Amino acid sequence: MYIEKIKVGEITRMQNIPNRFNKFKSKLIINIFTGETIGPFMVLCILILGVWILVGPSFFGSYNIFSILRQVGFIGIVALGEALIMITGGIDLSVGAVAGFSGIISAWFMVNTGIDPYICLTIGMIVGLIAGYINGILIVKLKVNPFIVTLGFMQIYFSFNVVITKGLPITNISRNILWIGQGRIGFMPMPAIILIILVIILEIILRYNKLGRKLYAIGENSEASLLSGLKVNNIKIAVYTLGGFFAALGGLTSLARFSSGQPSLGDGWELIVIPAFIIGGGSLEGGKGSAFGALIGIMVLTIVKQVIVVLNFSSFWQDVVIGSVIILAVLIDILRRRIRRV
Amino acid sequence: MQILKNRLERVFGTKIMTNLFVLISIITLFSFFNKGFLVYGNFMDIFRNSSFIGFAILAQTIVMIGGGIDVSIGGIAGISAIGAAYLMEPLSLPLAIIFGLLIGIFCGLFNGILITRLKISPLIVTLGSMQIYFGLMLVITKGVPLYTISEKWQNITRIKLFDIPFSVLLFIIVSLLLIFFLNNIKAGRNMYAVGGNEEAAIISGISVRKTEVFMYILSGLLSSIGGLLALSWIGSGQPTLGLDWLLRVIAASIIGGTSLDGGEGSIIGSITGILILGIIDNGLTMMNLSHNWRGAFTGAVVILAVLLDVYRKNKGR
């Protein structure tokens, strides 16, 4: 069956040769739809166009856009960490739980001790760093399968969240830190501003910095990178630690947004973050994807969710639609790659 | 002395023996703390409670032997149970149950076709289809438990034959059939071949697609049996049925020596995995530990098991 496919590809290529202009034109169109970052961006544009037709321009009112941007904010920060991990070929299912755990810990410190709230936030971030570091050490040094380890830790951290909060939200957290989640500068909510700054920094590092290129090299072929002198283990541990840090950052902004530590904080975020990375041009095998792509993936999923709310669908349909979008997005990705190969 | 040491190493070197050793030690530990633990009735409770999710674990083991992974198993169990519960009043009981099993088969077929025909990673496909199945459960039940389960079906898990719960007997029979299938029948051996080395399997003339689709269908069917039995035991169609199965299902398979890379694993190993998790759960409940802590314990057991596995493999090298 493989041989057949190659033949078909060659025939189409041959047919394209005589007409050079046609070839150029079709190549341009193919590139627009299949490029690494342009492709996902086109998916987003088509989605927005579809929403415009389906719901009407009222969907793009300032209140709605603001609410979408705020949702994109904290989950997007988590998605960036996951993107870094997945570019190097790993996976981290515990990001949502780590986000929740660091949020809950920092809320607990704020309410039960007299410590300055900003120090409590720092404690939350340190918790995220440590959680990421533990993941990294276990996965890299002991060569345990990342999927299983992080699944186990996910369960442990969620369980801790319920134990610490006793199943009830932690309220009365300090008012001084709420601006992180609720503040806005002009039109932009604070979490979205943090996210955009992070995306720009990461995108520059991933594209133009040596360290960023190393991440792709490791994801593409870990052994070749090791042989060409990269400190693969150290970089991988650093990436998992960074993933934990970003997760904590997302959890803390979300804590500030809701001004209470919900025991279910971060629940199910991993199911949004991983598909978002795939929608944004990433692959589970590593070596592909980008921070910008992850952002686009999150935007696609959030807009779809918001459409369900605006169209007054029963919220029970939400999971069904999100699941279908995930599968559809992966299908588009596969199609995209097939077109490019031909 | 050296001979004894070698012999001990050979015995404890295998995964199943390690698990039996772990089982015996946790049983001793718990029976030390609890007088009511090491009793026939309690053990039958453990077996029965483990048997529902046990079917899902068998399903996961088979898929993982074939080199795939099915995250949606809890969702399939849930949707087929809810489907059957929903149809129990308009249709007759047997028809509803058959329909529930058909839903499981169909869900497995859906996963299998997407994974094999379009070559999408099984993790992503089943992550998506899990969302769909759980979403559909909410849509069907409207978020409220269904109380339409007939008395007859509720009694099915409460029947005892030879003083052994019916669901446990059914589980044993199905496990024996699967062991026979995996070891002695060509389609079963093919699964090990496909999981171990897909290209070698293609070259030696095995139809990888057919094997994989069959594997996912089988997994769907087994999970729906688990879901239907759980429905009978709970007595109502909960919209969250199967939601918390995922970790336990994968954990038990891994503890039982099934490899995530495929080609390795056995039914008996996974059964020891179920028993370890079930006994820890039961023992902790009897020690009056809060339900909230149990997730943390399950997670810790999973990580310990994986670490032990890595240690064992390194030593073997």
Written description of the protein model:
The complex is a heterodimer of chains A (342) and B (317). By secondary structure, chain A is an all-alpha fold. Chain A has one domain: ABC transporter involved in vitamin B12 uptake, BtuC, CATH 1.10.3470. Chain A contains 15 helices and two strands. In chain A, strands 1-2 form a two-stranded antiparallel ribbon. In chain A, a hairpin with a 2-residue loop joins strand 1 (184-185) and strand 2 (188-189). Chain A is globular, with a radius of gyration of 22 Å. Chain A starts with a helix and ends with a helix. The model of chain A is unreliable at 1-9 (pLDDT under 50). Chain B is mainly α and 317 residues long. Chain B has a single domain, classed as Orthogonal Bundle (ABC transporter involved in vitamin B12 uptake, BtuC). A two-stranded antiparallel sheet of chain B has the order 1-2. The longest helix of chain B is centred in the C-terminal third of the chain and has 27 residues, at 208-234. The mean pLDDT of chain B is 82. Classes of the chains: A mainly alpha (342), B mainly alpha (317). Chain A binds chain B through residues 138, 142-145, 147-149, 151-156, 158-160, 162-163, 167, 271, 274-275, 278, 284, 314, 316-324, 326-327, 330-331, 334, and chain B through 114, 118-121, 123-125, 127-136, 138-139, 142-143, 246-247, 250-251, 254, 260, 290, 292-296, 298-300, 302-303, 306-307, 310.
Q: Per DSSP, what share of the residues of chain B sits in E-state strands of 2 or more residues?
A: under 5%
Radius of gyration of chain B: 20 Å
Number of helices of chain B: 14
Query: What is the CATH architecture annotation of chain B?
Result: Orthogonal Bundle
Poorly predicted ranges of chain A (pLDDT <50, ≥5 residues)? 1-9
Strand order of the largest sheet of chain A: 1-2
Q: Give a quick account of the main beta sheet of chain B: strands, pairing sense, barrel closure.
A: 2 strands, antiparallel
The end-to-end distance of chain A, rounded to whole angstroms, is: 16 Å
Could you tell me the number of beta strands of chain A? 2
- Low-confidence runs of chain B: none
- How many individual helices of chain A? 15
